Amino acid sequence: MSLVEDFLAEPTVLSTSDRQYKTIQDLYALSLGDVFQQAFHELSQQDKVNACRPLSEHEADFTNIRMSQSPLSAESYRAFFEKEVIGHSVNLLSPKFLGHMTAPLPGFMADMTTAITRLNQNQVKVETSNVLTLIERQVIGELHHKVFGAPERFYRQSLQNPEQSLGVITSGGTMANITSLSYALNKAFGPSAGFDGITKAGLFAAMRHYGYQDVVILGSQRMHYSIDKAAKLMGLGERSVVRIPATASGHVDPVALRRKLDACRQNQTFVLAVIGIAGTTETGHVDPLAELGELAREYGVHYHIDAAWGGAYALSEKHRALVQGIELADTVAICAHKQLYAPMGISCCLFKSADFARDSENNTSYQCKKGSYDLGRYTIEGSRPASVLLLHALLNLWGEVGMAKVFDRGLVLTDYLVSRLAQSDEFYLYYQPDLNIVVYRYMPPHLRSLAEQGIPFTDLQRQQLNQMNAAIQQQQFQKGDTFVSATTLREVTGDCVVFRAVLCNPLATESDIDVMLEDQKQIAVSVARRFDHVNSFDFRVGK
Amino acid sequence: MSLVEDFLAEPTVLSTSDRQYKTIQDLYALSLGDVFQQAFHELSQQDKVNACRPLSEHEADFTNIRMSQSPLSAESYRAFFEKEVIGHSVNLLSPKFLGHMTAPLPGFMADMTTAITRLNQNQVKVETSNVLTLIERQVIGELHHKVFGAPERFYRQSLQNPEQSLGVITSGGTMANITSLSYALNKAFGPSAGFDGITKAGLFAAMRHYGYQDVVILGSQRMHYSIDKAAKLMGLGERSVVRIPATASGHVDPVALRRKLDACRQNQTFVLAVIGIAGTTETGHVDPLAELGELAREYGVHYHIDAAWGGAYALSEKHRALVQGIELADTVAICAHKQLYAPMGISCCLFKSADFARDSENNTSYQCKKGSYDLGRYTIEGSRPASVLLLHALLNLWGEVGMAKVFDRGLVLTDYLVSRLAQSDEFYLYYQPDLNIVVYRYMPPHLRSLAEQGIPFTDLQRQQLNQMNAAIQQQQFQKGDTFVSATTLREVTGDCVVFRAVLCNPLATESDIDVMLEDQKQIAVSVARRFDHVNSFDFRVGK
């Protein structure tokens, strides 16, 4: 029994005659053809966001761990795929999926991924990538130019200079953030008199040599958890990530940051980086990037901007003001699989200085030799696909005009949702959005009435409100007609569960937003009823 | 001027009427269609391995960093892509490309990547991956079962248990090795009385708490450079990677390894891992995996097997003996984009113990919560594509029978090349291969004659031999008719440049190997002539 045979109810589908692939040529010729196209077309017509049972009910179907002996026929596999995979995935094509940083992709993206697979170049070295090495450097240069706007002579000198690097393509934003922080540490604790540098001698020796008791990373309380991952991976530990509280507006407080920088100076604590966020994951806030940049410069600290979400706006002159100050960063992380409409698996980390990665270079005797064009000299990852072509296609096929159109649409939809929330009796807006991420809450009438009278909630009321909001979002996902996500904001007044809408699907309409809110409202009524019914505040929200 | 416009010689191609995409719907509908298919078909018929000039001559074409204002037409982009990208990539479809760990992919892989892009699931959390969460766990379980062969009850307990993990899918082998080493360190230096654990407190505090002066990683001199990358990233520094010399046969010396383990015990040095290699990158050697496993167990050290190349053989009962002892590992890295014939960008790290990742879990308030099915709890990477489907398709569509056929073919081709080298007057085999990687050298008559008389080479002769072999391989790549790679083996007798053939293309024939050797021979003659001509040993090989 193979992984898939379980699912094939019709025994005829599995006729053994299909299962004979006599030669290696047969194995290679095996194709699934364009038959998925129909299934995907149906998916795109389908309104349902989620047609999957909770995984706890579904998991028993995926417990076979015995590998198939004979090959399965292409027809059988296709039947499995269309029924089980397409049928039970999340329908990210739906305009009513408004909850995560994922939107439908332009048609050419699927064509480009096919082309990338067909070429199957490996960007780690020239012998398996050739011209794609130059194209990757060029695309990075184009992003670099949009973000940092260095003079032409800088690019003439550095763009295709194999001894320099303007940035790297990574598999995701986490790797981009890790790259920035790791390379910044390698640079700060580089070789000096009597010391080989941290990349040779390690963190322990580096801290002793440079006379530091501690290393910290400073940024907003809203920093993405990949910063904690970086700190853990780099041996700094989560304790080294110091989260500065946000002001009432949700942005990092520069005054508190300066106090912290002063304290570090006095305590032999090395500040590895100040991190600015251009679009926090939870709320879409853009930190005061210029102000942070001035602080970082004043204290001589590496300035990294996590622009995984918002960095894309820098590519459109019209929208650039949304991420004003981004040019002050030393390094910038941008996810192409977010607002550059590429499929999952491509981000980048841009280096303002073409020499930033110098202390982090990797060399071996079989590739990435000194002097070679091999891009692997500057990446943490090794073998990598030429996914840079996804970005190349977007930059050319949408151009700045096309991208601006798409960004505009997301902001229009954001304004619409905000205005609908303002008119609503059930929901209220939690933050005025900086970008196209909107957080809001459901509030039942009795609490709203307290709030309107200025009577503060008790802890139990607060907890109940959180439980209701969480329950509404979970039921909404399982019901599967519309979707927004939820998060728990850690506020000084306590945890606060909010809905989170991400308006990045430019094909969504105002009516989709109306339908989504109406869906939530109906669920809210039934959830509120259950809360009244149990008449207790220890109601447990299921997983 | 856009990135691409430079290349479009025919101004008609760029007719401005093509360049108007009025609506967002137009931008989304933009497709490049199946038109690449013809270009790829031509590529597959083409014998040339490389039709690209040296990048230093080509780089001037890729210096424009100004982003396109208006969108380019699909036709223009296609014209660019077919001419500049397909035409100047490395032709990995050629059966005469025998030099890297890359082979043509079965037809269904392109179909599957298209499907993955169309679904665009994000494996980090259930809300964007649904059933693909279960499928990823199932595929990892299937690999785990083949590698470790745990009893059925283990999989019943752990396979779909969200509190446990049998392994992770990564973007590549480097990330798989990093995951293993980082998580092993987190486990070893976990929380204990009076200590929060390394993930919170950092390496510095952990070493102090556990009373170690140093941390090392032990393995063969042939360890992949990703182990050094891991050590650098983790704050251990390259010095912590201790390379044990290989024996004359090219395998790590277990006696030397035991001595080192003893020394570490005496020096308060923590041994983070013993690393066994199942198929070294340079030579394809398989370390004595069982013996290393016994040593690791005796000393209580984490045992990681870097089976990026050779791990695939564990999936075929017929070939399993090639990587005998792999089941003794605590963690195993396998690259699906190597001998599991998936496109670039998918590897995995398998965890023998379902609790291995416990001390490395990541949680946030917006995803990867405790108790959730979110796979992001156990990965270093964050947002990730559902590339596990590539593996799922292969396991089902090739099955064990199909994979065994493909493995057989590579080994037959290996034997053929070895026999041809034995008959040759120009080349000699450097190592008897363990798997399907063959290293060999060219040797001119006068040196061969010395060797046959048992007269050792002078340093200058050795150097000349290295230069000639390097020059032959570089000319072969630029000539572009056939290809093998080269590496510099660091031997006790000094550096040694060798050719490196990787016989993983099952569609290659014996005749392709003959043609390749003949090509090298002809180049060798001309290179040898140049060496005679300059009549000096300081001849410089160009980059």
From TrEMBL, chains A, B:
GO terms for biological process: carboxylic acid metabolic process. GO terms for cellular component: cytoplasm. It comes from the Bacteria. The modification N6-(pyridoxal phosphate)lysine is found at K338. PANTHER family: CYSTEINE SULFINIC ACID DECARBOXYLASE, GLUTAMATE DECARBOXYLASE-RELATED. Keywords: Decarboxylase, Lyase, Pyridoxal phosphate. Its cofactor is pyridoxal 5'-phosphate. Belongs to the group II decarboxylase family. Gene3D superfamilies: Aspartate Aminotransferase, domain 1 (3.90.1150.10), Type I PLP-dependent aspartate aminotransferase-like (Major domain) (3.40.640.10). It comes from Photobacterium galatheae. This is Glutamate decarboxylase. GO terms for molecular function: carboxy-lyase activity; pyridoxal phosphate binding. Transmembrane segments: none annotated.
